[in-house]
Design a protein that fits this description.
- The relative contact order is 0.13.
- Helices cover 83% and strands 0% of the residues.
- It is mainly alpha-helical.
- It contains 17 helices and no strands.
- It is a multi-pass membrane protein.
- This is DHA3 family macrolide efflux protein-like MFS transporter.
- Keywords: Cell membrane, Membrane, Transmembrane, Transmembrane helix, Transport.
- Pfam families: MFS_1.
């Protein structure tokens, strides 16, 4: 295949990949919304709702490194298609169970576990395959389109789910999810996951434990990758302060109506969509690690601003507008961290190790989420929210300055030293 044909195929991938992700994620958000309301309506228990959330996080965190190993050692296309087929069969199984026995919370838990396992394999494999689907010059655009599709699904899913919930049974939610994943399966079946691959075909496959061990060794040898992984771990831990605290402060302390809080959360999804459009239309960031450092510092500062309504006497409408703007800014800065880092990691990590590195990163990030939620849940019950947010903001700034210190930035971007060298030579 010549370069013109490859470029044309990559363009096809760009749109097909975006469409398949958007359709699948839209179906996923619609079902997630329906199941959440169903569990609360059926049991009235927050514990049952939390248990289902754990079932959607813990299995993925545990299996992500194995999914990464599979992505590195076996056909990416086959892995993704099998995972998507597994998702359809899982939902089909719950639909059949519901029709014959009736819906139950325990059946939902089991379904959520299997669905999460399937999504771990498809998600990690897709993450490791983006750089082989499109040419390097359009990698940032591909990742922006990916994020854009997720943002549209995050906005549209609850809206569609909310409209459906009052008129349709749970079985219809399951059918919508299955249809969405079948369409995604058909689109992904037409893609060439080896288009820009540089790996040799006849490489001997490693055994699973040896493969995981070699992945760890590779990470240990790459200082910059190690720094990014530690950074993602700490960020996911400490930004639980706003994940947990945002809802607690706005609903419990400031007594804002849940409908208005929904608009505040939607502003975050809109912010991600706007940032995705920006990165999709701009040239690739030249120094991504430095760009992400600046975005992270700005995000940390914005976290500190969240205390303003707590220490001032603002009107209800002013607080509402303030938090809409703040959540929008949060999303912009979050994309300013994730997008350049994602492109940078795609290019920095060797193709034969991408799956394992992304799998381990996902495990580290996702394992911190429940820990962070638990820690901050306890802290908000015992300490003033103002102090928690300000201290957390300072901690994140400190971690950023330590991990992304000038020496690390120079190792990641050697061009930072060029102006100095030129001045010395002159």
């Amino acid at each position: 295949m010549n370069e013109a044909e490859k470029y044309k195929k990559a363009t096809y991938h760009l749109w097909t990949f975006t469409a398949s992700k958007m359709i699948a994620m839209l179906g996923s958000h619609v079902l997630s919304f329906g199941i959440s309301l169903y569990i609360l309506a059926m049991t009235g228990s927050a514990m049952n709702f939390a248990t289902n959330m754990i079932c959607s996080i813990l299995p993925r965190a545990l299996v992500a490194p194995i999914a990464g190993f599979v992505a590195d050692n076996y056909s990416k296309k086959r892995t993704i298609l099998l995972a998507q087929a597994g998702t359809v069969l899982t939902m089909g199984g719950l639909l059949l169970y519901t029709e014959t026995v009736g819906m139950s919370v325990n059946a939902i838990y089991v379904t959520t576990v299997f669905y999460t396992l399937c999504s771990a394999f498809s998600g990690v494999t897709f993450s490791s395959a983006i750089a082989t689907l499109v040419n390097p010059e359009r990698l940032q655009r591909a990742m922006s389109f990916n994020q854009m599709s997720m943002s549209v699904a995050a906005i549209g899913g609850p809206v569609i789910g909310g409209m459906m919930y009052g008129f349709f049974s749970m079985e219809v939610f399951l059918i919508v999810h299955m249809v969405a994943y079948i369409i995604a399966f058909c689109l992904e079946a037409t893609m060439d996951f080896k288009l820009y691959s540089k790996r040799q075909e006849n490489v001997e496959k490693e055994k699973i434990w040896a493969g995981l061990a070699s992945g760890f060794r590779y990470i240990k040898q790459q200082k910059v990758i190690k720094v990014v992984m530690w950074l993602s771990l700490w960020i996911n831990l400490f930004f639980s302060a706003i994940v947990v605290g945002g809802t607690y402060i706005i609903i419990e302390i400031l007594k804002m109506e849940s409908t208005h809080f929904g608009f505040i959360q939607a502003s975050g999804a809109i912010g991600m969509l706007v940032a995705s459009l920006y990165f999709a239309t701009q040239a690739e960031v030249k120094m991504p690690l430095r760009f992400s450092k600046i975005s992270l510092l700005l995000l940390s500062g914005s976290l500190g601003l969240a205390v303003i309504p707590l220490v001032t006497n603002l009107s209800y409408i002013t607080i509402f507008i303030f938090y809409i703007g703040l959540y929008f800014i949060f999303a912009i800065f979050e994309m300013g961290i994730n997008m350049p880092l994602g492109v940078f990691m795609q290019k920095l990590i060797s193709e034969e190790y991408r799956g394992r590195v992304f799998g381990l990163m996902e495990t580290m990030a996702m394992s911190m989420m429940p820990i962070g939620m638990l820690v901050y849940g306890v802290l908000y019950d015992r300490l003033p929210a103002t102090g928690i947010l300000l201290v957390t903001s300072v901690i994140i700034v400190t971690i950023t300055l330590v991990l992304l210190r000038p020496a690390v930035l120079k190792e990641a971007h050697p061009e930072l030293e060029e102006p100095v060298m030129e001045s010395v030579q002159s």
